[in-house]
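Reminder to self: tokens first, then the designed residues, so the page reads top to bottom the way the pipeline ran.
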């Protein structure tokens, strides 16, 4: 059985659960949710339990984009995946982190954030307003700050072709794990309890 060691999660609503994310972060899932109403039903809690791994921090924030352009074209460098990771790494360091899971791109797709073009160097603040260069920058920064950590990117189903294929190409370039999900059971665009099991099982099948 694959073990992920000490785990850091960078996610959006799909990976949240009330009181299991940093204070001030928005949670989509909680005891109020109709189906995923216990943290034990989330994909990450099941995965960590079944692989004897340890969650260090779940840096997931509902409604957030990977890039610095959010809903209504708002500039969001503090809540984006890029901004949150840099803040976390600066404040906590990355020593001891064995695996980083990235599960984003859904809100970039839903918000209509600019796609941009893939870049691997010379990425500017302006570039970080677009998904593809921001995702590339995020991977590069994780590699820089945690060179020994495994990176696992989860790609949601039902995203735009540009966001899906762009992530796949960038992951291939950096030689990081990339798991493209298929036919996840959802309600209101979010995984149900069945969908959470499907996500966890897809990760276990990839590493089997």
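Designed residues (208 positions):
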């Amino acid at each position: 059985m694959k073990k992920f060691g000490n785990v850091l999660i960078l996610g959006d609503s799909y990976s949240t659960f009330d009181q299991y994310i940093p204070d001030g972060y928005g949670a989509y899932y909680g005891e109020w949710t109709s189906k995923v109403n216990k943290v034990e039903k989330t994909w990450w809690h099941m995965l960590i339990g079944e692989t004897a791994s340890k969650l260090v921090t779940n840096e997931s924030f509902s409604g957030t984009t990977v890039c610095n352009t959010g809903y209504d074209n708002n500039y969001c460098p503090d809540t984006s995946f890029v901004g949150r990771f840099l803040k976390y790494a600066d404040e906590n360091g990355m020593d001891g982190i064995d695996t980083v899971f990235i599960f984003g791109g859904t809100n970039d797709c839903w918000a209509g954030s600019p796609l941009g073009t893939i870049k691997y160097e010379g990425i500017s603040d302006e570039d970080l307003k677009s998904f593809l260069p921001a995702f590339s920058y995020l991977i590069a920064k994780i590699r820089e700050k945690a060179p020994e950590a495994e990176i696992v990117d989860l790609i949601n189903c039902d995203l735009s072709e540009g966001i899906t294929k762009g992530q796949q190409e960038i992951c291939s370039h950096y030689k990081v794990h990339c798991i493209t999900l298929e036919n996840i059971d959802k309600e209101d665009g979010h995984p149900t309890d069945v969908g959470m099991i499907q996500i966890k099982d897809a990760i276990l099948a990839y590493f089997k």
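The chain is about 35% helix and 15% strand.
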